Amino acid sequence: MTEKPPTGPRPRVSRRTVLRAGGGLALGAGLAAVAPATPAWAAQRGTPLCDEPGDSAAAQGIGSSDLAIPYYREHDGTWGYVFGDTWSGMQQYGDYLGSPLMLCQDRFDASGGTPISFTWALPTGGQARQLFGYRTNADNGFGFEVTRIPNDCIEFGGRTYIQYTSVGTWEPPPGYDGSVMSGVAYSDDHGVTWHDYPYHWAGDMQGVNQSMYGMWSFAGIDPDGWLYIFSKRWNGTHRNTADGGAIQLFRIRPDDFRAGNFGAQQNWAHHEGRWQWTTAVGPSPILTGNHIGEFSVKRIGGRYCMSYFDVTDYSISTRSASRPDAVWTAPKPQIVGDNRWPASHWGKPQVPYLYGGYIHPGSASATSLTLIVSQWPGVLHQPPYRVLQFDGINP
After folding, report:
1. Contacts of 206 (CB under 8 A, 6+ apart)
2. Average pLDDT, stretch 184-208?
3. Pick from 289, 299, 169, 158: which is nearest to 228 by CA?
4. How far apart are CA 129 and CA 61, in angstroms?
5. Mean pLDDT over all residues of the chain?
6. Distance, CA of 318 to CA of 330 (rounded, Å)
7. How many CB atoms lie within 10 A of CB 289?
8. Kind of pairing, strands 215-221 and 195-196?
9. H-helix or E-strand containing 257?
10. What letter would DSSP give residue 18?
């Protein structure tokens, strides 16, 4: 999720410099030093997955990108990774390829002993290219769109789904989120061709500023048969002054979701003096607090785990719960932009200009998560622009 168009002038200050750019961190190539290379037997602790010479992403056509949202391709037991705005060369050089893009992996080592390595690209199986058939920096019938940013991906029942946000501007005025709308695209051939559901959730540019349906995370289909979905405001700029960090929860039957019958959702709400599942009112915020950027919720080993970019704390933090509608644990900083202050950051892995933080659904256990974290200092051609793998995270 990058503040760019691919052509024309770019702002020098990015959402990813966030609040801490003046806190002793200097722009420069030194930002690329996150964690030293780990021995083959050790878990990955900041291993770059793109924007490195000769890496597996470059072999599939992606030089530099962000997000790399992981999902399980249940039809064949492989893994997919959905990227945001992407360039063919390192450090955002080469051709701008658009968003979203996808790379795949035939097997994933949950132990962290070997890093993620991409083995083919979609939609062609050759070089990666934009999945969706829309034009960037153009009006595609919804208003002017800079790009479409993926928020999460899931496959079930032979169909693959990506929830995305259409970005109208990366520089909205204070109190506005800059989105055009959000939507769900689906593929019935495992990522080769994509279609949009006709219903879209209006955003800022369509008169619905701060919609709580801007960003979704698919927690998965629970043994009770419901698909649980968490959602929140779009906070792509990481400077959304109206984003209080609220997250809401709803659920829907998988067959209704497949049919695009989104009105069949049930909402987790505080209604008539108690928390309940209901269709009488919309969802109530279940978590509030610091501003939250990208977030991810997954059911791992029977427990629900949450990861998110805490903009105010400048960290990737985690929480967990026994059920989606149960009480969540207190936030726990795991990877930080500055490990000098506060004390909760001391000794944590440090990634200047971090964001993202997606839970790998193939994580070893609910106490040993793999997280995919993005990094970019906010200036075109300023390294790095990449994703990093962290294993062994205990929420």
Report:
1. 142, 143, 180, 181
2. 98
3. 299
4. 8
5. 90
6. 8
7. 14
8. unpaired
9. helix 254-258
10. T
Task: Please state, in angstroms and as integers, the Cα–Cα distance from residue 355 to each residue in 109, 216, 341, following that order.
Answer: 23, 16, 18
The tokens for 281 are 């009112």
- Reading the block at residue 123, the tokens are 């939609």
- Residue by residue, DSSP assigns 288-308 as --S-EEEEEEEEETTEEEEEE
The closest of 49, 71, 125, 46 to 350, measured between CA atoms, is 46
CA 292 from centre of chain: 12
Extract the tokens encoding 93: 């050089």
The tokens describing 189, both together, are 């051939």
Structure token pair of residue 331: 């936030």
> Per the structure block, which two tokens stand in for 335?
């990877």
- The pair of structure tokens assigned to 145 is 């769109």
CB 182 within 8 A of CB 215: yes
- Give every strand in the sheet of 303-310, ordered side by side: 292-300, 303-310, 315-321, 332-336
Which DSSP letter does residue 287 get?
Answer: B
Instruction: Using the structure block, give the residue that is written with the tokens 């998560």.
Output: 369
Q: What is the pLDDT of residues 117-161, one digit of tens each?
A: 999 999 987 899 999 999 999 999 999 999 999 999 999 999 999
